[in-house]
Amino acid sequence: MNNSPDPQGKWQAYLSKALAKCRTFKFPAFYKKPKFWRNLAILFLFVLLSGLGAGYYWISTLDVSKLESPLAKPTYIYDQAGNKISQLSSSRIEPVTLEQVPQLTQQAIIATEDKRFYEHQGVDFRSILRALIQDLKTRNFSEGGSTISQQLAKNLFLTSDKTLSRKLKEAGYAIKIEATLSKEEILEAYLNHIYFGEGRWGLQEATRYYFGKNAEELNLEESALLAGILKGPTIYSPLQDKELALQRRNIVLAMMADQGYITAKEAAQATAAPIALRTKPLDNLSGKYAPYVDYVIEEAINRYGFTEDQILTLGLQIHTQMDAKVQQAAETVYKDDQFFPQGQSDQKVQSGIAILDQHTGAIRGLVGYRGESAFRQFNHASQLKRQPGSIIKPLMVYGPALEKGYRPDALLYDGPLDLDGYAPKDWDGQTRGWVTMEEAIQQSWNIPAVWLFDQIGIDTGKAFVQKAGIPLTEKDAHLSLALGGFAEGVSPLEIAQAYTAFANQGLMHTAHAITKITTADGHVLAQMQPESVQVTEPAHAYTMTLLLQNVVQQGTAPKAALGSRPVAGKTGSVELPPTQEFAGISKGQKDVWFVGYTPELTAAIWMGYDQTDRDHYLTTSGGSGPAVVFHEVLSSALKDTPIKPFEVPAGYVKDWNIWPEGWDDQDEYDQNKDDDKDKKDKKGKKNKKDPKDKNEFWDLFQDLWS
């Protein structure tokens, strides 16, 4: 006999008792009273009004001011010939106005994306219901039902997730947009923000990418193709599946005909047309000529007072003096590592070059860095401040000396020298007693330069370089200025500008890249006002040119030579500072320079490390790396330019190789003449005469000369 309990029977008993009690329970009949329904109606109305009020308040707090702000317009930069060479913008969109968009294009978009666009107020409940019914029929829930205003809201203010909360926010933003903007403003904003696939945002960018034209040139077939892409940019892109894109385009054409935008005949003709895409390479101006453009931005900010934001958003038209041939030559060389010292794995040898037209001051080419380009990175051509070394000698010493009456055959002291504790040395560690100015410049001897600088006076040299646009500080008041010992230093652009005075018969024009800045409709906002200064007399400038030609032909810069084309130039090197960090390094340079010019162009090149230390210094000279870069850039830039000589000033006579009459029988003069001959033949024989005696001789020589 089984005495175990029966669970099922027990629960059935409990359920029977509960049902019996329910049958006997009497509910109150309050729902039969009119008062109940009145109160219920009031409650419902209260909840409804409260919900509407809360919704209205929430919508009113939504910020759509972004739509009222004008879209960033790209700024275009032009070269000296008026060709558009670069584009700057803070946005991925190039905006168009609704007036620029063909009516057929607008209609194709509306017919496809929101055919009741002009009837609803942001949310089309009829379209939503129709989409829901269609989704229930197909059970794939692919129909969106979103209006143009909703899509605009999603693109600008929301994420792309498919949640109920996002859809509610989308509807709220759409209503706020409709209450804030007109239908025309909404459609314009939509056309500028919608995604057309292939990384293209906005109608203008898409039109250029797919068809190689501007939006205002779109025809019916192209308009329908772009409108068809919007349903699925990755699916209907003609670059991904041309056949599928064609089918979608023809569906759009049929929809336009159904809605009365085009006739059946027009639809049939457009349907029969094949897809015609861009065949030429896309001319992408963004990032083009970046090194030069970086300087253009720098000049627009520093010289004309524009802000970076204005340059990137106002659609400015900036006209410059860039010569594409010169700039391309410089960029090509700067991308080729063979023309630069190898450097270290953790730090590249940097460089900067500035190339000017000495006749106008126009910056024809400029590269401010080596390696990968980044927007407005440090510009070694214009922002660098480094000691110039020997390239300053023609400006600080020899140019002023020519003005004071010294001639290239003047004898300069090149022996042991100590001026109030300052004792310069020649780069080869030797002395030659007395050398001519021509020889001192040709071989870049230091002692003669310092000795002559002391003779003409520090203030005389400073006045000359300052007239040539080289900045000095209050600390720059010592003899080491003759060798480039500046407190702050100079940039290649400043040096190139200064040397244009020698290249242009003493007249220096202010270096500039920008000629004018205008609005998109041509209103001039800023314009270059020509500025020039007569740094020295034409005869002195030409004499310096002849001396600097000798540097290239027979001196320290043979690698800068351009064959039969005349070249004048000067090398410069800055030794490592005599600190404990560099102890034991016998041959090391911190900076190396070359500045040179032809009858057409003037260029200055600097090389060095951004951070010089015991592991990062140069072992080359200005006559090697920078001179080679000058040769490579200028030979390419002037490849098709006819060769011509430097212009000779009117009435100029080259007479410094004719010694003054009556000096041939003077023993002192003959001795110096013989010493000079020995120096040229044997290179190294020293004159042991007392410097004081030589000074007395020089004073006599100068008296007779004058």
From TrEMBL:
Protein name: Penicillin-binding protein 1A
GO terms (BP aspect): cell wall organization; peptidoglycan biosynthetic process; proteolysis; regulation of cell shape; response to antibiotic
EC number: 2.4.99.28, 3.4.16.4
Ranges for domain Penicillin-binding protein transpeptidase: 353-634
Protein family: In the C-terminal section; belongs to the transpeptidase family. In the N-terminal section; belongs to the glycosyltransferase 51 family.
Membrane-topology descriptor: Single-pass type II membrane protein
Transmembrane segments: 40-59
One function term, GO molecular function aspect: serine-type D-Ala-D-Ala carboxypeptidase activity
Role: Cell wall formation. Synthesis of cross-linked peptidoglycan from the lipid intermediates. The enzyme has a penicillin-insensitive transglycosylase N-terminal domain (formation of linear glycan strands) and a penicillin-sensitive transpeptidase C-terminal domain (cross-linking of the peptide subunits).
Entry-linked SUPFAM superfamilies: beta-lactamase/transpeptidase-like (SSF56601), Lysozyme-like (SSF53955)
InterPro entries from the UniProt entry: Beta-lactam/transpept-like, Glyco_trans_51, Glycosyltr_51/Transpeptidase, Lysozyme-like_dom_sf, PBP_transglycosylase, PCN-bd_Tpept
Highest taxon of source: Bacteria
Compositional bias (Basic and acidic residues): 670-681
One GO term describing the cellular component: plasma membrane
Reaction(s) catalysed (UniProt annotation): [GlcNAc-(1->4)-Mur2Ac(oyl-L-Ala-gamma-D-Glu-L-Lys-D-Ala-D-Ala)](n)-di-trans,octa-cis-undecaprenyl diphosphate + beta-D-GlcNAc-(1->4)-Mur2Ac(oyl-L-Ala-gamma-D-Glu-L-Lys-D-Ala-D-Ala)-di-trans,octa-cis-undecaprenyl diphosphate = [GlcNAc-(1->4)-Mur2Ac(oyl-L-Ala-gamma-D-Glu-L-Lys-D-Ala-D-Ala)](n+1)-di-trans,octa-cis-undecaprenyl diphosphate + di-trans,octa-cis-undecaprenyl diphosphate + H(+); Preferential cleavage: (Ac)2-L-Lys-D-Ala-|-D-Ala. Also transpeptidation of peptidyl-alanyl moieties that are N-acyl substituents of D-alanine
Region ranges (Disordered): 661-693
Cell compartment(s), UniProt: Cell membrane
Ranges of residues in domain Glycosyl transferase family: 83-256
Keywords: Antibiotic resistance, Carboxypeptidase, Cell membrane, Cell shape, Cell wall biogenesis/degradation, Glycosyltransferase, Hydrolase, Membrane, Multifunctional enzyme, Peptidoglycan synthesis, Protease, Signal-anchor, Transferase, Transmembrane, Transmembrane helix
Primary location: membrane
Pathway, per record: Glycan biosynthesis; Cell wall biogenesis; peptidoglycan biosynthesis
